[in-house]
UniProtKB/TrEMBL annotation:
Region of interest called Disordered, as start-end residue ranges on this chain: 47-98
Biased composition regions of type Low complexity, renumbered to the chain: 64-77
Lineage: Bacteria, Pseudomonadati, Myxococcota, Polyangia, Nannocystales
Name the UniProt record assigns to this protein: Outer membrane beta-barrel protein
Keywords carried by this UniProt record: Signal
Species this protein is from: Nannocystis radixulma
Length: 482
């Protein structure tokens, strides 16, 4: 899948990775950032029975710790006694339309997710199945949607992505272990790791797409009662708005921006939260969406998030490090990602701006290759409080001056309009129209028999309609009961 994230020359001719944390009805962007900060130990009573409420739940995007905080959007309302109708009642807290970006990818029925509530349950088990049909106006013979790893197939019914996970979140005010493991399968899983390098080429072992394709998350760590966090392993990348788990994004498809930055990072994360609203992060990782490194040196990313409230937050990430075979400082990649999100139960808006540059010391005169992009995200509730209908609109512009990210010098212009229907508590139906345009005179998108990158007959425009159904499950457990 050419155009799948950045083009980085490596010792093994490693091509480049294609690739909302992000905003899902609240970060379309499923690893939503929300304040996830400790409170004094004396204020936490985890052994108490959790209060039961029917208040709608809103997941706020990226917050001080990079983890979502779910807070009641209204004062708690006592839960009615159980009745024969309970099985038919749909809870208002399904992720996907109410949440935007979720490190915490699901909300369990009747179980509080706010870690500051008494009775918080640290463990969660869940998963999802995403099935779609995509009609592409170019009808490519290879059925490939060029440039994305989230919905890589078109022109057929596709079991796009299936994920199962278990995780342990920290208990506020306590020294807590952290754990996360997620397994995955489907075209989206294979496309995600399609360009993983195998260092050493034919003589390399124990790396590459076949080794990693079924792993989505795998990390362990701890968080102290004072907000210091250390996590190691395969982790969700906080860069960009949106994640690879499409049911938790505002729009069904993701931006070109998200397909140009890491969906995942492998290495060490250190974070410190200050005064509940500020967090600084230091990441030391193998590289730009790499489980196996393409050279012998790590890269570094610095992050800062500010969570003004459960409705508004800002985030900034800066990347520096060697992403080529040349590891000298004069060849290091420089990159900046800026995000802002405002989200309520009825309405949400977000924006991002990225700029990056690589000094290509492998080319004559060592030219700087640059790219820049911006996108605006919006969502609004049309109908319903239980069974809901939400809409989301997202325009985007991606300037790939030298073809560093997608292999072709061009500007990509895109817009997506999505209808999200929450039919049942664990069932989301989505209908999306998306338009993409490339300014490359030779075209960029596959069309009919034109399915060779850089070959003749590629299209400059494409219209795509997606119909998708997602089943989502999550259950919280492990809290002490009085």
């Amino acid at each position: 899948m050419a155009g799948h994230r950045r083009m980085s020359p490596t010792t093994s001719s490693f091509a480049s990775l294609v690739p909302l944390v992000a905003l899902v009805g609240a970060t379309p962007w499923a690893d939503a950032l929300g304040p996830w900060t400790p409170v004094p130990a004396e204020d936490v009573r985890v052994e108490a029975e959790p209060p039961q409420t029917d208040a709608p739940v809103v997941e706020s995007p990226k917050g001080a710790s990079g983890r979502p905080a779910v807070v009641p959007s209204a004062a708690p309302v006592p839960r009615k006694p159980a009745s024969d109708d309970d099985d038919e009642r749909v809870e208002p807290a399904l992720p996907g339309t109410d949440a935007a970006a979720v490190n915490n990818p699901a909300v369990a029925v009747g179980e509080p997710m706010d870690p500051h509530l008494p009775g918080f349950k640290p463990w969660e088990v869940g998963g999802f199945i995403d099935v779609n049909y995509a009609y592409n106006s170019n009808n490519p013979d290879n059925h490939v949607y060029r440039g994305t790893s989230v919905q890589p197939r078109t022109g057929e019914f596709t079991l796009n992505h299936a994920v199962a996970y278990i995780r342990r979140d920290p208990i506020p005010g306590h020294f807590s272990p952290l754990f996360e493991f997620a397994a995955q399968g489907g075209p989206a899983a294979e496309a995600l790791v399609a360009y993983e390098p195998n260092p050493g080429g034919a003589n390399g072992k124990f790396a590459g797409p076949e080794v990693w394709k079924h792993l989505s998350r795998a990390n362990i760590g701890f968080r102290t009662r004072h907000g210091t966090e250390m996590v190691v392993g395969l982790q969700l990348s906080p860069v960009g708005i949106g994640i690879h788990w499409s049911p938790y994004n505002w729009n069904y498809t993701v931006t070109w921006q998200l397909n140009s930055v890491p969906y995942y990072l492998s290495g060490l994360k250190l974070a410190q939260t200050f005064r509940d609203r500020h967090q600084v992060q230091l990441w030391v990782i193998n590289g730009w969406q790499l489980l196996a490194d393409n050279n012998k040196a790590p890269s570094v990313m610095l992050g800062y998030t500010f969570t003004a409230s459960e409705k508004f937050n800002l985030a900034e990430y800066v990347w520096i490090g060697p992403e080529q075979a040349d590891m000298r400082p004069r060849a290091w990649r420089l990159f900046s990602d800026s995000q802002a999100v405002y989200n309520t139960e009825r309405f949400g808006i977000g924006a991002l701006f990225d700029v990056g540059a690589d000094p290509r010391t492998d080319l004559p005169l060592s030219p700087w290759q640059m790219w820049m992009n911006g996108a605006v995200f919006s969502r609004w509730r049309v109908l319903g409080k239980v069974r809901t209908w939400d809409m989301a609109l997202r325009p985007e512009l991606f300037w790939d001056r030298d073809g560093r990210m997608f292999g072709v010098p061009q500007t990509l212009i895109s817009a997506a309009f999505t209808n999200n229907f929450r039919v049942f508590n664990n069932l989301l139906v989505r209908l999306e129209y998306r338009y993409d345009h490339s300014t490359s005179p030779n075209g960029f998108f596959y069309r009919g028999p034109a399915i060779v990158d850089g070959g003749p007959g590629l299209a400059r425009d494409q219209h795509t309609v997606f119909f998708a159904i997602a089943g989502v499950f999550a259950h919280r457990f492990g809290g002490k009961r009085g």
